[in-house]
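Input/output pair, single chain:
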Amino acid sequence: MKISLICIGKTDDSYLIEGIDSFQKRLKFYINFKMIVIPDIKNSKNLSKEQQKAKESEQILKHINSGDCVILLDERGKEYRSVEFANFLSKKMLSSTQHLIFVIGGPYGFDASIEDRSDAKLSLSKMTFSHQMVRLFFSEQLYRAFSILKGEPYHHE
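Output:
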């Protein structure tokens, strides 16, 4: 199985970049993981929220194939404890999921076309975080989940 994280716009803050890079390097020992960064939509100030979401969705959908399992990171999604998230990933691997794609939407959320294409929604918290921070939090939780599955001492419970 391979896992991708699709997100809109680049990360600007160096401390976030360093953290994300650190977890990406650690993840390569467990899983084929890549982050796909879609550039910010140009001239977005001239677009309505709905138009911006539609344009972002067009770009996101270019990276999704028909057999991919798509999970939207959304504050209204299902919440997991870290061990439960690890079990979720284990089930996806056992069910022969080839490509698991997690998606962080733009500032206004997801267009209906992405919601219709998605298989589920996952919430990292009921709180709202910046899209850049979500990349770090998600990368860390993904690493934590694989360390749990491998029985390694990173996670304490």
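The domain at 2-149 is CATH 3.40.1280.10 (Alpha/beta knot). The chain has a mean pLDDT of 94.
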